[in-house]
Amino acid sequence: MVGALLAVGGAGRSGRQQTHLPPAAGLLAADVQASAEATNRAVVLRTTACGDTSRALGSGILIGPSRVLTAAHVVAGAGSVSVEVGSSSAVGTVRGYDWKRDLALIDVQEILPLPIQGPVNFGVLGVGDEGHLVGGATSGSIPFTVLDRTIIETDDVRSPTRSRRAGYIIDAPTQQGDSGAGIYNSAGKLVGMVFAASSESERRSFVTGSSEISTFLSEVQDGAEFRCDPAESKLTKVL
Fold first, then answer.
1. Quick one: which of 138, 163, 168 has its CA closest to 150?
2. d(CA 194, CA 180)
3. Which domain holds residue 158?
4. Residue at 200 is within a domain
5. Which helix (H) or strand (E) holds 225?
6. Shared domain check, 132 and 113
7. For burial by CB atoms within 10 Å, which of 22, 166, 183, 217 has the most?
8. Do 21 and 136 sit in the same domain of this protein?
9. Which residues pair with 64 in a beta bridge?
10. Rg (CA), the chain
């Protein structure tokens, strides 16, 4: 059983582990520092409040020259979104989200000064493999070891229902603001995205797996736009 989960970029949620997945085969442990490719994809997100919600600090992954992936709970109550790289910042527009997977897609209104090479490539890790969490808004880039590759059950964002997603439990001390940061294998491939830390162990964090991210990106509706509804204190779709 997994104890309580604490979102590291928004409101806390609880959850428990349901099903263990078999370890991925034939993968090399990460024995080098985080790759430049992964580092160049890391951004910081800051939001203003929408209605009676609070501002948020989160992390994100640049998956294209002007497109960012983050955790949905980072932007769920956003009045506006700022995407930051070092001293540069740009306005972001939420284009899609999935409350069940806790994923959101943001378009940036200008190209950020990051020399990324094409679209993001996905990878997997097995139990005991090592990698790097890259670009957490609070923790920066830190190494980790995979403790479990599993199905995680957790509360939906802004909903009383619960859902299950494929992901990882990693040995890494993430903090508030790190939600949305990517974890990568030694080849610089995106393995998943941090969404919560354990309230029972300061070195245990929870990650949404790359298979969930890939599915979300294939399903997100092109051209959609979501803006703050102050009366509801949450994002709503612009018709």
1. 168
2. 6
3. 5-35+118-215
4. yes
5. none
6. no
7. 183
8. yes
9. 67
10. 16
